[in-house]
Amino acid sequence: MEGTADAFERECREIKQGGLLEGFPEYVGHEGRAAEIRLYEIGIIPGLLQTPEYARVLADSAVRRGAIAPEQADERVAFLTERQAALTRPRPPMILVVMDESCIRRRVGGHKVMSAQLDRLAEFAELPNTVLQIAPYDTGERRPFDLPMNLLTLSDLSVIAYAESQMRGHLERDTTAVLPLLTAYHQLQAEALPQATSVAMINEVRKGTP
Fold it and tell me: What integer pLDDT is reported at residue 22 of this predicted model?
């Protein structure tokens, strides 16, 4: 899959300015080869777990706000689909996901889109190479991250981190900077709900979606 990962990175670089943040193309290149992927997200479902319909709603909303052009929205959705497919390789990575409770309670795209998205999360949790946890609202001040965080463990056991603000993305390779982030992620997992409880919450939210 190394060639595929490299191809993704090249494709990222071809997407027009404004479609992707700085550092993300290089991150995706590493993601396609990673042995473990750790994700933390706030407010929206992480891209790797999004349904095409959910991703399309977000992309179209960005177009309406004037943040990206329509062709960039198409590129973004198509690229996400390819990025997800790359992780179904013969030896898939271990994927550990912690989502803030806001991710499942923030309605995106109406009942049909959101219901299907929540179903997708429950299906993801059943895979043998995944762990899915919800960080509930009452985690409060014990939540170690204020922004989304991506951590990749590569085949040589090195760890790199990628984080985004509203305007910028940053890829961090320096071990002295990354290891504290890995420690914070372990603390986050300890504070989050167990997977079975997390899936039960997801199913309750789905039933209550009007």
Answer: 65
